[in-house]
Amino acid sequence: MDQLIPAASVIAAALAVGLAAIGPGIGQGNASGQAVAGIARQPEAEGKIRGTLLLTLAFMESLTIYGLVVSLVLLFANPFAG
Amino acid sequence: MEILDSLRVLNYFPLAELEVGQHFYWEIGNFTIHGQVFLTSWFVIALLVVASLAATRNVQKVPRGIQNVMEYALEFIRDLAKNQLGEKEYRPWVPFIGTLFLFIFVSNWSGALLPWKLIHLPEGELAAPTNDINTTVALALLTSLAYFYAGFKKKGLGYFAKYIEPTPVLLPIAILEDFTKPLSLSFRLFGNILADELVVGVLVLLVPLFVPLPVMALGLFTSAIQALVFATLAGAYIHEALEGHGEEGHE
């Protein structure tokens, strides 16, 4: 029983950050693709598009970071490790 | 004494539970505080105060040196606030948003650039103040207070009307939003900074020389972006409270 909780926590931590990376990955790909299309269509708007893109990428990245926070809790501050 | 005893309940508040590694504990009254965070944030505050004093000590008409740098920073912050809050409302909020931005920015970069490891503590280690969840929660709660204050000051009790507009069906979600805003703000900053330091730490463990350098540069970039994101979101939330519903595209 004692071994079960650490093992399950490590697996859950890996799954938390891994699964949390899927959605933002797709979203960031979409956003970057659209940004490239926008720059190709209107090269003079590149500066503005890049600024907005970086900001939105940071928002999407924070979703993965939430998964990372959960996995950090499981690894370093596990409430069930007792 | 009784007041302090009742305050001790705060010690069991779950905010401080998230601890990675060791901390340098100080006991003040009945509180246990993380000394290393205080030391580094005092350093950051001192750095900012000294920089602004040096910049304003001898103000020239044609700015040079540090005055030039600080004027650039001020213009940057003013533009940021103006973009979020609009031409009419932004001026009173420049100090708040600017303080958030500068404190977070200098904290993040001090954690990444300064060789804190050379100073040994009895336990724990010096790092960016923002890699402790308590710092980021404090900053996020300040942001919550700020936008409530903005809403109440502008509209009085009519501020609560935004909870039941456009329809009262969305009331639970509107209330929930007030809790998720500080939660997401604090977790975003804390997670990003801690993740940077962990990645650099793991890479240094594997290859001590040169290989971690690109990751460190990436860390500098993301920490700057996170400071910008925090300040931008604070501005967006304050703007939302000033304007009422309608602009919820920032999450």
Can you summarize this structure?
With 82 residues, chain A is mainly alpha-helical.
What does this structure look like?
The complex is a heterodimer of chains A (82) and B (251). Chain A has a single domain, classed as Up-down Bundle (F1FO ATP Synthase), CATH 1.20.20. Chain A is 84% helix and 0% strand. Chain A contains 2 helices and no strands. The two termini of chain A are 12 Å apart. In chain A, 17% of the residues are buried. The model of chain A has no long low-confidence stretch (mean pLDDT 87). The longest helix of chain B is centred in the last third of the chain and has 36 residues.
Q: Please tell me the overall pLDDT of chain B.
A: 81
Looking at the chains present, what oligomeric state does this protein adopt? heterodimer
Question: Main beta sheet of chain A, described?
Answer: none
CATH superfamily of chain A, called what?
F1F0 ATP synthase subunit C
Beta fraction of chain B: under 5%
Number of alpha- plus pi-helical segments of chain B? 7
* Strand-pairing-aware structural class of chain B: mainly alpha
Integer count of domains of chain A: 1
Overall geometry of chain B comes to globular
Distance between the termini of chain A: 12 Å
**Biggest sheet descriptor of chain B:** 2 strands, antiparallel
Largest interface, counted with CB-CB under 8 A?
A-B, 15 and 21 residues
Supply the key terms.
heterodimer; A: 82 residues; mainly alpha; F1FO ATP Synthase; B: 251 residues; two-stranded antiparallel sheet; 65% helix; disordered N terminus; disordered C terminus
Topology, element by element:
The complex is a heterodimer of chains A (82) and B (251).
Chain A: H1 4-41, H2 46-76
Chain B: H1 2-7, E1 25-28, E2 31-34, H2 35-56, H3 65-89, H4 94-113, H5 133-155, H6 171-206, H7 212-243
Antiparallel strand pairs in B: 1-2
